[in-house]
Amino acid sequence: MNKGLVKMKKFAVDDVYNLIFDVFLVLGIPADEVKICADVLIESDLRGIESHGVGRLKMYYDRIRDGIINPITKITKIRDHAAIATWDGNNGMGQVVSFHAMNEAIQKAKKYGLGSVAVRNSNHYGIAGYFTKMASDQNMIGLTVTNARPSMAPTNGVEPMLGTNPIAFSAPSDCEFDFLFDGATSIIQRGKIEVKARENAEVPKNWVIDNKAEYMTDPQQILKNLVSQTASFLPIGGMEEISGGHKGYGLATIVEILSASLQTGSFMHQLSGSEGGKKVPYKLGHFFLAMDISAFTDLNNFKHTTGEIMRQLQNSAKAPGKDRVYVAGEKEYLKGVQIRKNGIPINDALLKNINIMIDELRLEKQKKVFR
Ligand SMILES: NC(=O)c1ccc[n+]([C@@H]2O[C@H](COP(=O)([O-])OP(=O)(O)OC[C@H]3O[C@@H](n4cnc5c(N)ncnc54)[C@H](O)[C@@H]3O)[C@@H](O)[C@H]2O)c1
Q1: Using one digit for the tens of pLDDT, what is the confidence trace for 315-344?
Q2: Predicted TM-score (pTM) above 0.85
Q3: Angle subtended at Cα 168 by Cα 65 and Cα 291, rounded to the nearest 5 degrees
Q4: Residue of 193, 155, 240 lying closest to 56 (CA atoms)
Q5: In a mutational test of the pocket of ligand 1, which residue from 43, 189, 267, 315 has the highest number of ligand atoms less than 8 Å from its CB?
Q6: Which CATH number fits domain 1-65+336-371: 1.10.287.110, 3.40.50.2300, 2.30.180.10, 1.10.1530.10?
Q7: Could you say which of 16, 48, 104, 329 would form a disulfide bridge with 180 (CB–CB 3.0 to 4.6 Å)?
């Protein structure tokens, strides 16, 4: 593998946003909902999370064209009881269902102090942190989790059972940025393997195992084996209990319960997107929670205490060779400043995918920018 061969170009944020917007629009997503979907994807690129921004557009494109995501999102409200609601996403766009679900949780929190919405039969919602930031932007704590197609083995196992099941948590602070933890409960998520494949780079040992519990490092092989269910991501903490692998496995299972049991939704193997060799909807579940800080305490005190926690962590003693201690959300905030100025990096392989969509959808305006 030779990372040196990868060519990278930078594109203005507005150009990438317009591309995402036009692709979704031509695929039949209503204009006001396209705005939500495009916002979630571009926010990922703006945070430097290359795996979930324009790099994921082709995945949604393929799934909508294959008929396994409905571009028109119809939400059914199954239960609504004071601070709590349960919704069915009816196989619509995950970003649209989730935007409305977190918004509903926030409205309920304004009324009751806490608000929570559990969702079933949805689709991949992108970066979990987008939705928690909706809450922290309104001076609330936001929490969301989602299940995903099975790709992670439980501790002592080799069968992909759980998804990469991310957890996101945002809290407002008096720092330049909010505390925003947003990460998979596996060491790595599929998007980062796809980025490695596009870069023609090796995957570090201890991220992925095969069905004999041997480490895998070739990203193309890993992507193939994930399809045949003969590769598994490892939970946070790795393969063994000695390094705490069982704790990542436990967290991923908590996510699965919050994403399936509360909403009588689908879980684990039912989320594989395939039945008898035929592509079928993924039927994912999500969970959203908003907490109104001012119902607990004075908002400014909360922001100051959270900010102090962040500052004291940043200013704590550094390990040899390390010049900085970060807090969650900081790297993405710093990348955002750079990316807004310098543009979004897009490599050759991704550009090729972008041009396939541009040609197939006959997006003449985009051709001028991305050729
Ligand atoms: N929708 C899905 O099914 C799905 C599944 C998995 C992941 N994802 C998304 O993929 C994205 C990337 O996930 P990931 O697991 O690769 O995240 P990651 O490992 O890049 O980062 C996880 C978190 O750690 C923080 N962080 C990074 N370095 C740090 C440091 N040195 N000190 C303190 N904090 C630090 C980051 O700010 C971030 O909040 C997330 O947005 C996640 O929601 C989505």
Answers
A1: 999 999 999 999 999 999 999 999 999 999
A2: yes
A3: 115
A4: 193
A5: 189
A6: 1.10.1530.10
A7: 329
